[in-house]
Amino acid sequence: MTKLKTEIKTLFEQQLAVIATASKDGTPNLGPKGSMHVFDDETLAYSEGTAEKTLRNLKENPKVAVMVVDREKVDGYQVKGTAELLTSGDFFEEVAKKQEQRKRPRPKYVVKIRIEEIYSVKPGMTAKKIA
Length: 131
Fold this sequence. Notes:
single chain; Pnp Oxidase, Chain A; seven-stranded antiparallel sheet; globular
């Protein structure tokens, strides 16, 4: 399993992540996810509360890409993986609790993303795979 390095974790703590999904027919969608966070070295998580295109796409096609960048440092990463939609269980409750601590609504779904590949999107790296 691919693991996140400290500098990538820091970006996820400090910057807005954007998730890319696609429907079963390949229609792409991008969505900012303010609740996206590093759950552990091999997993990203966020609470899905909009129940719109991203959710519909995840139900049809669990493959995702998540990008996080720091414009000031001109650095960033793309993480590719497989998403799992959860509506209950220990993982769901842990993410829901984090949302409640942030004074955000309880999620309808929690999205658990197993990290499979990591790429640098830093200029000059030509989207080099780093893990």
